Amino acid sequence: MNIDSYLKETVEVANRLSRDDLQNLLLGLSTLRSNNGRLFIIGVGGSAANASHAVNDFRKIAKIDAYTPLDNVSELTARINDDGWDSCITDTLRVSNFGTNDAILTLSVGGGSEKTSLNLVRAMQYAKNVGGKVFGIVSRDGGMTAKLADACVVIPAVNSETITPHAEEFQAVVWHMLVTLLRLK
Fold first, then answer.
1. How many domains in the chain?
2. Spatial contact of 39 and 178, defined as CB atoms under 8 Å apart
3. CATH code for the domain in which residue 176 is found
4. Rounded to the nearest 10 degrees, what angle do helices 163-184 and 46-60 cross at?
5. 129-141: pLDDT as tens digits
6. How far is CA 179 from CA 56, 93, 135, in A?
7. Which ranges in 17-161 belong to alpha helices (H)?
8. Structural domain containing residue 78
């Protein structure tokens, strides 16, 4: 791997993004905004950091009432300590009265499964159970996010050794595109 090969992969990922999936996610977010719904952005690891940045952009640029339960480290760690990892996001959604006008946007490399990112999976299942929407920007095969989502963009995996960096960088590319297009609508 060198600079040129990494950048060639980046271009390939961009070229292979599903325009239909991007449009569906844009439409879902536009509808959420029209309905005065709230957007809860979730992720773990690097995707958690992306969630924090994305909240700012969705609020400031796209005018969507957005939050991430991950930014309140005191509440998050208390919930993990007292109640466990699997329910830490779901319990925050309950306290926030997450409802039918609201949506989750899951940022994840693998999209979650019954073995990984269970806190994301449980939060998405909760959102669906209460009638909310689930959106996602994920990679690999999309995992549980792709299965549960109302709209999901799967970042193409072009090299097994660079899935994570491309997934996390394209989360930012996609949300920046979305907030820009929403601002212009």
1. 1
2. no
3. 3.40.50.10490
4. 10
5. 999 999 999 999 9
6. 10, 23, 14
7. 19-34, 46-60, 73-83, 88-95, 118-129, 143-148
8. 3-184
